[in-house]
């Protein structure tokens, strides 16, 4: 089958699932409403195909909207089919995958259609944190469908034909589609609404298969493992040159250089994704100061600060990992918060969410300080102060309140430059070095860069049976 052509709703399911594994549920369900000439229109499967099947042997439940049947619009029975799939998935503990291609609410069904949207939202909310929810957009996902996508854990879009929007571009004050198409995949990826954009529909479906294979099936499943064929003690000979572009460092650390990145186009100064260590799925979060191409040429540079977007990106990722018992690794290199007027409006709230996410998570948490670790921004980045189980630091790392030169200038204001220089060197040795932090117990071990992989593997193996009892509460408020 050509991946260049747009697939039908059934072809999408067939391409997504293992061969001959799909079992349809509710094939004969159709609309009950006959108002406004609906009785004259055929609606096979009421515009959505639902059922279950396998991805690489893993059970999944799937619904695929059929735009050729009433535009794939959501009405009463259409929604009931999706809700039934959620009910079955929750009973057995399996992911739900939604393939979206719909004109939205079915106008002829009015309040029944509104009720249908609400019932789907409720079911998605109840399923959140219990089973993984994935949506992929192949056509239109407007209005309430954008909410369905955002209630999922991961969202995918096909680059050319898909559209995701709450309000259409032409309805936005001062905008039109030709000026800025806010519904396109590229735009949505850059603002963090979408985790992955595929060039073709088949590319998106293959990426979903890849994701399913590394995630647990539910919050009670601990089977997100694969056989490790990589050397557990592999020396990372190139990692010293990869510490600025930490995406490359994570790829190097992972088993067989595997890395599944999420939201790659959003807040590029913060890398998030999944790696494998000794076959175990690990969520990875890393500060990044450079983006480089395959030849090592620098494409983009960042100043090493925490941003609002970076915090929001990381905090949601940590929450997902915590919900599904996926251990978390951080590579920390941060020198403070972004200092702009716009950031000042939002950074306190965003950083508090990231601080809360790390502190609240009860999963195994390991931090490697690979560069600077300054001020409260460092505390936010999975420090031992907020509950990291193991903290490693590279010998060249710097940990403290701020840069030693700046600290000396503040403490010895008015002194001669040679005095300030001398005191800066003293401050760097006594207060800002990795050794100083280790002496106080804030760093567990100072390790060489080429040994990072084996230290991480041993740490996560040691933490595998971690238990963390917390005070009883309904939920936090951050």
From TrEMBL:
CoA carboxyltransferase C-terminal domain boundaries: 231-476
Any Pfam family: Carboxyl_trans
Protein name: Carboxyl transferase
Domain CoA carboxyltransferase N-terminal intervals: 1-144
PROSITE patterns, per the entry: COA_CT_CTER, COA_CT_NTER
Domain of life: Bacteria
Record bears the keyword Transferase: yes
GO MF annotation terms: propionyl-CoA carboxylase activity; transferase activity
Organism the protein comes from: Variimorphobacter saccharofermentans
One Gene Ontology term, aspect cellular component: acetyl-CoA carboxylase complex
Keywords: Transferase
InterPro entries on file: AccD/PCCB, AcCoA_carboxyl_beta, ClpP/crotonase-like_dom_sf, COA_CT_C, COA_CT_N
């Amino acid at each position: 089958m050509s991946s260049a052509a747009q697939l039908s709703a059934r072809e999408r399911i067939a391409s997504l699932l293992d061969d001959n594994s799909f079992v349809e549920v509710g094939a004969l369900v159709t609309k009950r409403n006959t108002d406004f000439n609906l009785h004259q229109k055929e609606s096979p499967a009421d515009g959505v195909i639902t059922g279950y099947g396998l991805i690489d042997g893993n059970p999944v439940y799937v619904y695929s909207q059929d735009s050729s049947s009433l535009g794939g619009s959501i009405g009463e029975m259409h929604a009931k089919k999706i809700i039934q799939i959620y009910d079955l998935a929750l009973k057995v503990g399996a992911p739900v995958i939604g393939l979206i291609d719909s004109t939205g609410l079915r106008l002829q069904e009015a309040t029944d259609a509104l009720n249908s949207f609400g019932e789907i939202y409720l079911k998605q909310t109840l399923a959140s944190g219990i089973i993984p929810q994935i949506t992929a957009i192949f056509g239109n996902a407007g209005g309430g469908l954008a909410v369905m996508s955002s209630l999922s854990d991961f969202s995918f879009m096909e680059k050319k034909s898909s559209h995701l929007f709450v309000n259409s571009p032409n309805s936005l004050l001062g905008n039109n589609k030709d000026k800025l198409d806010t519904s396109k995949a590229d735009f949505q990826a850059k603002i963090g609404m979408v985790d992955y954009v595929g060039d073709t529909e088949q590319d998106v479906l293959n990426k979903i298969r890849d994701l399913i294979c590394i995630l647990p099936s539910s919050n009670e499943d601990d089977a997100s493992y694969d056989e490790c064929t990589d050397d557990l003690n592999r020396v990372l000979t190139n990692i010293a040159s990869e510490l600025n572009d930490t995406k490359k460092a994570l790829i190097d650390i992972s088993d067989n250089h595997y890395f599944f990145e999420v939201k790659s186009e959003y807040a590029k100064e913060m890398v998030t994704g999944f790696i494998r260590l000794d076959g175990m799925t690990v969520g990875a979060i890393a500060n990044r100061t450079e983006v480089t191409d395959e030849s090592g040429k620098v494409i983009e540079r960042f100043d090493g600060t925490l941003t609002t977007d970076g915090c929001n990106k990381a905090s949601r990722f940590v929450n997902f990992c915590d919900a599904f018992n996926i251990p978390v690794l951080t590579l920390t290199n941060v020198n403070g918060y972004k200092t702009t007027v716009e950031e000042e409006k939002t950074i306190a709230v965003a950083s508090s969410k990231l601080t809360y996410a790390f502190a609240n998570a009860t999963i195994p948490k390991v931090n490697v300080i690979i560069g600077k670790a300054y001020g409260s921004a460092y505390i936010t980045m999975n420090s031992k102060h907020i509950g990291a189980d193991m903290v490693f630091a590279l010998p060249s790392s710097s940990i403290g309140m701020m840069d030693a030169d700046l600290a000396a200038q503040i403490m010895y204001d008015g002194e001669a430059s040679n005095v300030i220089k001398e005191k800066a060197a003293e401050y760097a040795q006594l207060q800002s070095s990795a050794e100083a932090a280790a002496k106080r117990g804030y760093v567990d071990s100072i390790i060489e860069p080429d040994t990072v992989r084996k230290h991480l593997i041993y740490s996560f193996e040691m933490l595998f049976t971690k238990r963390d009892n917390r005070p009883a509460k309904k939920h936090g408020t951050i």
